[in-house]
Amino acid sequence: MNRDDFLAGVEEAAVAGRAHRVKTRDLPDTVGYVDCGDDRCAALAAEVEAVGGEKHLVANDAQARDTLAKLLAEIKPAVAFCWQHPLLDRLRVTETLRSHNIACHDFDSLAGLDDHARRAAMLSSDVGISSVDYAVAETGSLVVCSKPGQERMVSLLPPVHVALIDEAQIVPDLYDLFERLQENDSPALPSNVAFISGPSKTGDIELQLTTGVHGPGRWIVVIIRG
Description:
- By secondary structure, the protein is an alpha/beta fold.
- The protein has one domain: NagB/RpiA/CoA transferase-like (Rossmann fold).
- Helix content is 35%, strand content 21%.
- It is built from eight helices and twelve strands.
- The strands form three sheets. Strands 1-12-7-4-2-3 form a six-stranded parallel β-sheet, with helices on both faces. The protein has a four-stranded mixed β-sheet with strand order 8-5-6-9.
- Strand 10 (201-202) and strand 11 (210-211) form a beta hairpin.
- The protein is globular, with a radius of gyration of 20 Å.
């Protein structure tokens, strides 16, 4: 197909699409609202599992630290790539990594390296450990607003991604998420907001679903109640 035929097809499809616009005026505020029941932690955990992730629902910080320690003992990483985040500080993640003799790369440790060394360090990571900006109970999605110290590469490069989430970070559905993003809108809000819903998947090769081709093949979410 030549360029003109391709563009003509796109234009034709766009015209056809405009004939089926959905009316959005004067609709009740509750239309399309999903909510997640009384237990948003359980709702998120169920959706995480439904999209191919591993969920760990814990009651407090101590259980979260124990869960992370058990996961690290199972995964046996040599190097971790970590966010710098108040929740990770609260859970003493760096201390846990040190107790398992796991090297840790983060924004500060990478800042002094040249581009080649920084790339090599990130690619050497066996596990990425992050928190989130928000988690959406409706879809089991983790919402990440990339910024210095909270790089999206943590959730993309290592073969295993572990996300630690506090209940306060969970919103019921996408309507709530965009309200929160609008409330917090400021010059500091990054242009890149990523939605992570399960481990990396692709169906490009012979329409066969394959996990872990373009990112982590294992996606673990630890949800802390309260």
